[in-house]
Design brief:
Layout (H helix, E strand, L loop, with lengths): L4 H5 L6 H16 L4 H12 L3 H4 L1 H17 L8 H21 L3 H13 L3 H10 L7 H29 L3 H21 L14 H13 L2 H28 L8 H8 L3 H17 L1 H16 L9 H24 L6 H75 L4
Helix pairs in contact: 2-8, 2-9, 2-10, 3-9, 3-12, 5-7, 5-17, 6-7, 6-8, 6-10, 8-9, 8-17, 9-13, 9-14, 9-16, 11-17, 12-16, 12-17, 14-15, 14-16, 15-16, 15-17
Length: 418
């Protein structure tokens, strides 16, 4: 069901300043999961474990994030998004304090896992914003918020790589704690009061969570979008974790700061993603996703032949970073135009699948590199990218077929009143 004019008239649109403030909030909160990417080798050596084993830390963080989204994000359809975000961001700040004070791997991993569980704000905010933007700007605003995610990842990877090269790696998480404390104080200003939020006392919490799966069952197009993004995100986490190990290996011998500088390539996505979001508004989400997936596949084929130096890796990383976020944006567009009262729960299913994919990618990224080196990693990434292309084409064809079947029925129903 498309959001009606009456629905939109009942709420006030966000100002541009509020849209950008929400994007900044998302950036800071999102960054917490990605500080470990460039320093994962340093963390492994510090705790005395192997490269294949350290992948469990980001993997558990991603799995906990998926579980937290499943259990906590549906509350966004029942309670004030603003109030929920304040609670979850405060909990994240406490978890970061635990990571800073951790004296051993077990405590560090437990705090990181809980941090992932409470990382809900970046996924409540887009659903909140989608109810407060004009329908014709949905792609643009979704892309802006996605650019916030990209910026957070960029700052996390660049900052962590540079800081750990010149100081001990735990200082990275001290800086993260300071940023999160600032966001905790800033969020009440960045996120306006939510007068349009309505409680649903007739629905129990268990029923609310169960409804995530019933809604997913009745929206096959959304399920396919979720699967595509799950694979897309698995590629992302696997590639950057393996890349950090590859560049800091004995063969290449780069420092963690080099990994951070290379991560700066993601800055191009901050510029291109909002523009590609506007393009997707014009050409259609599914068509745009196919194009983005094909470009991503082309970039992925270049990882192995150009992977012997940082200079060579710039080319495939630019291509992948331009279109990777667009696959996510277009996936969300396929269901964020549906009825406002179900968007948070549809987003829940989509994000859960996405982070299950991220957890799998985190585990595979370090394991496959440990077993098969850079060549094995590139083969895995190519297989994942090819599957993303195939599923994107399938989704577009299914949508076109559904549209063709629906149009004659609509026309025939319209004839009597003409």
């Amino acid at each position: 069901m498309i959001q009606t004019g009456q629905d939109m008239a009942s709420c006030t649109y966000l100002t541009r300043a509020q849209e950008y403030a929400l994007a900044v909030t998302i950036a800071v909160v999102t960054a917490n999961a990605y500080y470990i990417h460039p320093i994962i080798g340093e963390v492994a050596r510090s705790f005395g474990i192997g490269e294949g084993e350290i992948g469990i830390v980001p993997a558990l963080n991603q799995l906990a994030l998926a579980l937290g989204i499943l259990l906590l994000l549906p509350l966004g359809d029942r309670y004030s998004n603003r109030g929920l975000c304040l609670i979850f961001v405060s909990a994240q700040t406490i978890c970061l304090l635990g990571m800073v004070l951790a004296a051993n791997l077990a405590v560090f991993t437990a705090a990181s896992t809980l941090l992932g569980f409470f990382t809900i704000a970046p996924y409540l905010i887009p659903a909140f914003a989608s109810k407060r933007v004009a329908p014709e700007r949905l792609g643009q605003v979704t892309a802006l918020l996605t650019a916030g995610v990209i910026f957070g990842i960029l700052v996390a990877r660049m900052g962590a790589g540079i800081i750990s090269e010149h100081a001990e790696w735990p200082i990275v998480y001290v800086c993260a704690l300071v940023l999160m404390a600032g966001v905790t104080l800033f969020l009440p200003v960045a996120m306006r009061s939510d007068p349009a939020a309505r409680k649903q006392p007739a629905t129990s919490y268990a029923g609310l969570v169960r409804s995530v799966f019933s809604l997913a069952a009745s929206h096959p197009d959304m399920r396919l979008s979720a699967l595509i993004q799950g694979l897309n995100f698995a590629m992302f986490t696997a590639s950057w974790l393996a890349l950090a190990l590859h560049l800091t290996s004995r063969e290449l011998g780069y420092g963690t700061d080099s990994v951070g500088y290379l991560a700066g390539i993601a800055a191009i996505s901050i510029i291109t993603t909002p523009r590609l979001g506007r393009w997707a508004d014009r050409v259609g989400a599914r068509h745009a996703r196919v194009a983005a997936a094909l470009i991503q596949f082309a970039g992925t084929t270049l990882f192995y032949p150009l992977g012997s130096s940082i200079a060579g890796l710039v080319v495939p990383l630019v291509l992948v970073n331009i279109v990777g976020p667009t696959i996510d944006v277009t996936g969300r567009m396929t269901f964020l135009a549906l009825a406002p009262e179900i968007r948070t729960r549809l987003t829940t299913f989509y994000i859960v699948v996405m982070f299950v994919g991220g957890a799998i990618g985190s585990a595979l990224g370090t394991f496959v590199y440990d077993v098969g080196g850079w060549a094995g990693t590139c083969a895995m990434l190519l297989a994942m990218s090819g599957t993303v292309v195939s599923l994107s084409v399938l989704a577009e064809r299914k949508w076109r077929r559904t549209a063709r079947e629906w149009r004659p029925r609509r026309d025939s129903n319209a004839r009597p009143s003409d």
